[in-house]
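Hi support team,

I've been running sequence recovery on a batch of backbones for a student project. Most finish fine, but this one hangs at about 90% for roughly twenty minutes before it completes. I'm not sure whether the input is malformed or the queue is just slow. I've pasted the structure tokens below so you can try to reproduce it. Let me know if you need the job ID as well.

Thanks,
M.K.
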């Protein structure tokens, strides 16, 4: 929990200064102490990437007894970090016997501190580095490597999966899939734009505006051939649903869109989420089914405020 607080404190830092570096080191120190006491094996990870490193933590399930098991590569969003997405107790992945490679990708959290910025080139290449690292691990089944991205990580994980065919299934959670990202950077809190300018290495707003328009799934998502799950709020204020629906309509792989009635970008605090399928459980069950080789139809699930799910063809 101390590591989580240090990571959150970094959110307000928009340059790699002495304070940001000190907060990052405190986060690492606290998480390293936690790893020594945790109920499961946790290893620090530094994956070589373009002359720099992708920082992460590799988690094995508490009940791991040997042999090859599935793994999920997990990415945070714009304002979170790799330490958040593996639970202290009852983690959705680990409890299902699935290992987790929790990474900060280019521009995210510690990765930005280490000198890697957001760019399309970096995110199209990051999957190869992560999967190569996993394939060298004796615990990992090379046929069962999944990927998960939350919020802005949903865009990053989509680009990564489109360019790394060894990933067998992908989850884009709390979608951020508007090409060019007008809504989040021009209509939402200015802190989002300020944060992402830092993540991408820009100080000039006009130059950043030209750059953000190059950020798009177009020309990439259409290449995804593996099962793909989108989970979204009906009234997502940061990424209107029309962009997610347009992307999915141009894809030919097995895919599912789950929409929660009246939910916003942070999927919660509304009846559809409280009464319908619990999003983290649903996502983990979906991934486990893909690892088990179960077939799936391309569907749109609409979870209404009674908790009922209406399924239609996608």
């Amino acid at each position: 929990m101390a590591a989580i607080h240090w990571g959150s404190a970094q959110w307000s830092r928009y340059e790699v200064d002495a304070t940001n570096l000190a907060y990052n080191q405190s986060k690492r120190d606290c998480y390293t102490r936690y790893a020594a006491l945790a109920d499961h094996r946790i290893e620090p990870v530094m994956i070589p990437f373009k002359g720099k490193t992708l920082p992460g933590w590799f988690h094995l399930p508490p009940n791991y007894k040997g042999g090859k098991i599935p793994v999920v590569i997990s990415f945070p969003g714009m304002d979170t970090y790799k330490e958040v997405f593996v639970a202290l107790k009852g983690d959705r992945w680990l409890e299902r016997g699935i290992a987790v490679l929790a990474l900060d990708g280019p521009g995210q959290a510690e990765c930005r501190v280490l000198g890697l910025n957001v760019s399309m080139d970096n995110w199209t290449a990051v999957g190869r580095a992560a999967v190569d690292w996993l394939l060298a691990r004796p615990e990992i089944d090379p046929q069962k490597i999944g990927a998960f991205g939350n919020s802005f990580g949903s865009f990053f994980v989509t680009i990564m999966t489109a360019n790394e065919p060894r990933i067998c299934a992908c989850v884009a959670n709390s979608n951020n899939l508007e090409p060019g990202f007008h809504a989040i950077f021009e209509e939402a809190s200015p802190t989002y734009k300020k944060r992402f300018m830092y993540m991408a290495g820009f100080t000039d707003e006009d130059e950043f505006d030209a750059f953000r328009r190059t950020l798009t799934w177009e020309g990439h998502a259409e290449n995804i051939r593996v099962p793909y799950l989108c989970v979204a709020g009906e009234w997502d204020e940061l990424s209107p649903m029309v962009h997610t629906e347009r992307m999915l309509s141009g894809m030919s792989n097995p895919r599912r869109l789950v929409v929660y009635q009246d939910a916003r970008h942070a999927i919660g605090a509304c009846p559809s989420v409280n009464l319908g399928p619990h999003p983290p459980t649903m996502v983990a069950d979906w991934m486990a089914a893909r690892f088990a080789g179960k077939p799936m139809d391309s569907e749109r699930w609409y979870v209404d405020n009674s908790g009922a799910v209406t399924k239609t063809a996608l």
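--
Follow-up from support: It reproduced on our side and the slowdown came from queue contention, not your input. The mean pLDDT is 97. No action needed from you.
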